[in-house]
């Protein structure tokens, strides 16, 4: 017993020594503002006729231009997404997937769109075992699945669009031909991706025209992408999935050891789905059901609703501890149950029920961090993404997220098409019998999730936070920051964030050591010290805390826009 106590004291002393060495980097950063929270980077942007918030200022301006021309919020979102695919190839593009939640002012309801693609029909599960692979590679031809974004655009446009698709794609085509200045964060990630991706056919020609990645402020052109977007503008979605573009992708994949085929592209379709929700202290928080991870945010909120968080305080060790434990519980279910519903009967209703949350809550020890949890019994970290939200004068609002997944995608850059194919197939499990087991024609587990909040059956906030497994954690934190801690829409995003990593994953990893916590600058040393005493591992990390955009609609119809201070973006309205 004494030996165990001695060992425990030794470990605590070592952990505290590490924490003390980080004191200098955990000081609160404050802005010289005469009101509001000291950590807020700016006031919310206010407007009445329209609003856009994206991670690229030029994309935000394009969205506003579309709104001013009479386009709907949906038109503006499509145009902005097309521009971001060009200007932020580090996070998205037409080689990736898309999800959206739309508030229709006319219908007075939310619509959900799952525009994610499926695995190649010609790639059998047994192939991976024959290649002696224990997991699907992160790059190259094997993780490539059907890109769903373009079909997603046309589905959204058919249902809610006003302006011709040619008008919506024209700004992206113009910028692709004429060039645009590369922003700071995009330049950083672009240069970081080059050593990994430059070996894949077509990448250097498209993304390294001068033999290197562009630097911040340099002009970059992508005439290949301009031609591809023009074909889509002229020929519609079939130009991508059944025309020259599809045939070029098929040819390229066959030449380079891939399986994605013309047939896979030609048979692709998006699905309109019902968003699901939980009520958190009077606010209905909406997410899309699996194959995405959105309901993890709802599970976290349901568990935490049982505690008086407001009395604990936003930076208290008690709150951080409860948040981390609730996240661990939700992510065990995420690892076991979240997958393509076409291949599984996923118990979504049970997972997001208050009764289930109450049972899971009983497992939390308020004084001690758990090393592991098991997934509940219910009746039958690397992500690069963009998130944007738009709103128009009629009250329509769009919450849209789009991604190539890891880094700039698979590296596979077909011919002269000007874009990279996604590597989302990496997210399949190779464990036989797993809900998320790889199967031909199946959608992989997805990390990208849009969110929406309504109150009294009226739209309140469209929001999202990009960044892999960070996303459901930050969705929950944004809601808690506003509902429990009274922050405004910009402060809720600027507030220092909690990130727990190391949970069990849908790709077969199992948490056995409790994972670890990363706390952004702004959490007191006393909080970090107390969390170590509760058994948490604390690490200092820079950069993994996600990227947030939001639009809140006031009772008087005024839009309040917010943009991520950690990214290159902008919220703007008129």
Automatic annotation (TrEMBL):
Official protein name in the record: Glutathione hydrolase proenzyme
Lineage of producing organism: Bacteria, Pseudomonadati, Pseudomonadota, Gammaproteobacteria, Cellvibrionales
Enzyme nomenclature, EC number: 2.3.2.2, 3.4.19.13
Highest taxon above the source species: Bacteria
Gene: ggt
Pathway it works in: Sulfur metabolism; glutathione metabolism
Pfam families recorded: G_glu_transpept
Record GO terms (molecular function): leukotriene C4 gamma-glutamyl transferase activity
InterPro entries in alphabetical order: GGT-like_enzyme, GGT_lsub, GGT_peptidase, GGT_ssub_C, Ntn_hydrolases_N
The reaction(s) this protein catalyses: an N-terminal (5-L-glutamyl)-[peptide] + an alpha-amino acid = 5-L-glutamyl amino acid + an N-terminal L-alpha-aminoacyl-[peptide]; glutathione + H2O = L-cysteinylglycine + L-glutamate; an S-substituted glutathione + H2O = an S-substituted L-cysteinylglycine + L-glutamate
